[in-house]
Amino acid sequence: MTDSLRTLKEDEIHLWWTFPERILDPDILARQLAVLSVAEQQKQQRFVFARHRHQYLVGHALVRDVLSHYFPVAPVMWKFNVNYYGKPFISWPLDCQGLNFNLSHTEGRAVVAVAWQTDIGVDVEFSTSRGNDMGIAKSFFSPIEVAQLERDPERFFDFWTLKEAYIKARGMGLSIPLDSFAFLLSENDHPRIHFHDGCPDRPERWDFNLYRGEGYRSAIAVSARGRRAIHRKIVPLESDVRRLACDWAEIPPS
Ligand SMILES: CC(C)(COP(=O)(O)OP(=O)(O)OC[C@H]1O[C@@H](n2cnc3c(N)ncnc32)[C@H](O)[C@@H]1OP(=O)(O)O)[C@@H](O)C(=O)NCCC(=O)NCCS
User: Fold this and answer.
1) Cis geometry, peptide bond prior to residue 253 (ω within 30 degrees of 0)
2) In the chain, what are the domain boundaries?
3) Ligand 1 within 6 A of 109 CB?
4) What ligand 1 atom has the least distance to the C-alpha of 172?
């Protein structure tokens, strides 16, 4: 491991949470825009709705600032590439490529998960039912999950976020059929995964964590066993916009 990887241990996963609606200071937003690449700025400008532009800006500035927490690289300097399915990874500096990350954002929340040398995926969803949960489950989920949902329909977003976290960790998007694997949920244990015939993966190489917050669900998938998940909730400080360095404050749990 490179010496400059400061505080992320090999047996840890870090999750950095922020709250886009709390980030409204024009100086801070200008500073966040300034750390994005030209391509990211152009993508951000293409969103039709202001709230989506805001969500994208905060999420992608968070990625850059979080990565700069671990390496002495200015947030603006990171370069990313994407795999065939669009999953971003660090392409420069080359010696940081073992630091894997994944971003998820939804109304009111953005989260970046980071881990050293393992596949990682994270998903956060605003967990208000859109009214046809069981119909969606029957159309797309595994029959094993549908059977669990029939006993406890409240768990729809548990399945949703876990499935999304898994396909994000694999980095293959919806090319992995959502009914080719199933989660087994219990009250007291970590979620477990089951692969149906034809899904070339092994349950023993995965760990999952599920978080059931007020109005939100989130899940992490990591292709390593026994890593400890550490959460940080942060908001940007009053910003000196000339300073392109990580400038966030930890906030107490809410
Ligand atoms: C691309 C995908 C990851 C989008 O997921 P999402 O829930 O809409 O969005 P999230 O906020 O969780 O994640 C988006 C971020 O993941 C990252 N991402 C993009 N493609 C990715 C991929 N193939 N794998 C992992 N991460 C990816 C990017 O950083 C992206 O941020 P950006 O859109 O601002 O550039 C993909 O899983 C997808 O299209 N999902 C469709 C939703 C769905 O039907 N889910 C079924 C769940 S049961």
Assistant:
1) no
2) 12-118+227-250, 129-210
3) no
4) 23
What does pTM read for this prediction? 0.94
Q: What are 192-207's pLDDT values in tens digits?
A: 999 998 788 999 999 9
Where is average pLDDT lowest: 3-7, 98-102, 212-216? Answer: 3-7
Does ligand 1 come within 6 angstroms of the Cβ of 104? yes
- The identity of residue 155, as a single letter, is R
Q: Which of 44, 46, 164 to mutate to test the pocket of ligand 1 (most atoms within 8 A of CB)?
A: 164
- Asked if residues 120 and 224 have their Cβ atoms less than 8 Å apart, the reply is no
CATH topology assigned to domain 12-118+227-250: Ribosomal Protein L22; Chain A (3.90.470)
Tokens of 208: 């999952």
Residues 216/124, Cβ–Cβ less than 8 Å: yes
Helix (H, G, I), strand (E, B) or coil at 99: strand
CA distances from 105 to 6, 10, 45 (A): 26, 25, 17
Over range 23-33, report the average pLDDT: 91
Q: How far is the CA of 254 from the centre of ligand 1 (A)?
A: 26
Q: How far is the CA of 243 from the centre of ligand 1 (A)?
A: 30
pLDDT score, position 244: 47
